[in-house]
């Protein structure tokens, strides 16, 4: 069994980081190199994954297409969610995503992944030789995309605008006054 931990600091509000981490579209954006796409097989294919919802991902890894269905098994907005594989190539996979606001108003996003290779005899060898490095690289790439999107204006393409204007760093509040009458 592999256990990976990765912490990413993001200069954006906690709710934005939390929601971007649950976004199907942002996940796909971070996996473009794999040709990944969400499939509508008993799950959602766009938007934000919610408690008990499943997403089936199709991705090409090591030259082979794989389907993996994950389910949101715990959710406490905006601090924590857990995703567990319910079908897929791994013997086991579970990801815990934890969020907290630091005194500097930066969001700390901590990911804890537990993964077991599928084959009982060759699995530990695969884990030691390449799986740990490969999965850590995928996790870091995902987190870099979330950070880039959250810290720029790009986040507005993926999330409904519900943040107060004061938390939209680097952006002027929109003028909500009525249009002039002729």
Question: Quick summary of this structure?
Answer:
The chain has 182 residues and is α+β, with helices and mostly antiparallel strands. It contains 3 helices and 7 strands, in the order E-H-H-E-E-E-E-E-E-H.
Give a structural overview:
- The chain has a single domain, classed as 2-Layer Sandwich (Alpha-D-Glucose-1,6-Bisphosphate, Chain A, domain 4), CATH 3.30.530.20.
- It contains three helices and seven strands.
- The chain has helices at residues 14-22, 24-29, 123-151; strands spanning 2-10, 37-39, 54-61, 64-76, 80-87, 92-101, 107-116.
- The chain is globular and about 45 Å long.
- The termini are far apart.
- 18% of the residues are buried.
- Residues 164-182 have low confidence and may be disordered.
Distinctive features:
182 residues, 7-stranded antiparallel beta sheet, 3 helices, Alpha-D-Glucose-1,6-Bisphosphate, Chain A, domain 4, 7 strands, single chain, alpha+beta, 24% helix, disordered C terminus, globular
Order of helices and strands: EHHEEEEEEH
Main beta sheet strand tally, sense and closure: 7 strands, antiparallel
**Which strands sit side by side, in order, in the main sheet?**
1-7-6-5-4-3-2
Instruction: Bin the helical content.
Output: 10-25%
Please indicate the percent range of residues in DSSP E strands (runs of 2 or more). Answer: 25-35%
Q: How many DSSP H or I helices?
A: 3
